[in-house]
Amino acid sequence: MQADLKELWRFRELLWAMVERELRIRYKNSFLGFFWSLINPLMTVVVMTLVFKTFLQNSTENYAPYVLSAYLPFMFFNLAVMDSAQSVLVAMPVVKKVYFPREILPLASVLANFIHFLLALVVFFGYLFVVWATTGFQVSPFTWRIGFLPVLLVVSLALTLGTSLIVSALNVFYEDVKYVIGVLLYLAFFMTPIMYFSENVWAAVSKKGPTYEWLYYLYHLNPVAQLATTYKKTLVPPGRIDVGSGLVVDPIAQNWGLFGVTVLVSFGVLVFGYWLFNRMKWKFVERP
Amino acid sequence: MSTPAILVQDLHKEFLLSHSGVGSLKTLALWWKKRELEHLQVLKGLSFEVGRGECVAVVGRNGAGKSTLLSLLARVYLPTTGTVQINGRLAPLLELGAGFHPDLTGLENILFNGMILGLTRKQAMERTADIVAFAELEHHIDSPVRAYSSGMLARLGFSVAVHVDADVLIVDEVLAVGDFAFEEKCYDRIASFRSASGTILFVSHNMDSVRRVADRCLWLKDGKVELAGEPETVIASYENG
User: Fold this and answer.
1) Measured between beta carbons, which residues in chain B are less than 8 angstroms from residue A17?
2) I need a labelling partner for B230 at 20 to 30 A (CA). Which of A205, A227, A238, B81 fits?
3) pTM, entire model
4) Considering only CA atoms, which of B3, B153, B15, B151 is closest in space to residue B80?
5) For B40, which residue in chain A has the nearest alpha carbon?
6) Could you say which of B74, B99, B115 has the minimum Cβ distance to residue A13?
7) Distance (Å, rounded) from C-alpha A75 to C-alpha A283?
8) What is the pLDDT of residues A142-196, one digit of tens each?
9) Is residue B174 predicted with pLDDT exceeding 80?
10) CATH second-level architecture of B6-240?
């Protein structure tokens, strides 16, 4: 594994060139291209806010920023995994003729999406600022918690890289892997606290009685769900959350134990994914 | 002539041949049925070496394992057993325009391909002018490569490969594509590459070009070296049998 990492480092310039190429193709050389790609998350949040605040009469504070703060990281994970699933197959004509570390292909897809995610976060902070300005700069939406963001980004990147390496390697041999992953990601969207909150899960579970509390922990063993919760608590100042049945609660404090599990799982997935990819990469060109 | 440029020892390559199409999760789930896989021995114990500055031609019938050998040298495959050792930087030219992305312009592809072949971004930038000039593509370099003819692709691919300061050049039957003038230019370039003690290994079905540039000839038959030596003698026995 050490030799593989060294080889990857030798080809780092090629990796950057590929990241640049992916971004250039995505933004089609236009500045507006970036904003076009923001329309999807923004429209989603507008519709979700309409549904929850107006149709379902939910009174949660900061609802729209809360949703956006979890939806952007989720979309990063989603798009990066789906892009990298195809990355090796698309590059097969090159892979068959020239040597270069094959892991560059999924890594470039992930990194391009990561840069896109960072840009989207800048827009997110701009949005918070605008909302703050419209309230006459009363309560600042920027808290000390934002300082935790870099750690969160590193963990998300590790989880995404690991998952992408696994998916892209398997997809070379079993081309239906990407369809299965597509369905799983769609389901993961609902099993992740994006349009609702981990407090909703807690309220639902504790209503059933203390013997069911383990379900809440089980739910958060999914690293994507735990990351969404942590993004919300990091990026948005705590607002009271409407958990239904006329109950409005204060947000639950960040559970560091659960977050620690997510950190371990994320880096575990990264190491396993890198190992698996390197084990399989020489067979890509001679798949039967 | 201390260490050889290419050292191949007891090289074996075996492929798995499937008769049931591309893999899917279904075939994985049905693995208890044992997929119909055929083991195909392509290279059966190949050993040879190419000295620094030498130019070696590989000849042989279709299916003798020539392309597999070149792919192994280019590190596209791993050997099943045996070793391949290359001392110095390698530039493979296995297929014209492989590694070119059809939607990018010629210029972007030069940068990209140069970096795949081991140049830094800076080096690649510095050499684009030379590469374009050699390929005679000044007027087309800003159009996407998908609009190129096969001759243009050949020129661009060849031009990139000879401008990356490779020590070893591996060529798979590509010199035949350009027109006569360009072919002459390629031979000139190869001559100057060799006088700078560059090593070449190439596959060809064109015996004239083998006679013209090769110092030595390797006849591959059924995954083994049938005969190696002077081009004239090897070609004579190859053509007779």
Assistant:
1) 111-112, 115, 121
2) B81
3) 0.88
4) B15
5) A288
6) B115
7) 31
8) 888 889 999 999 999 999 999 999 999 999 988 889 999 999 999 999 999 999 9
9) no
10) 3-Layer(aba) Sandwich (3.40)
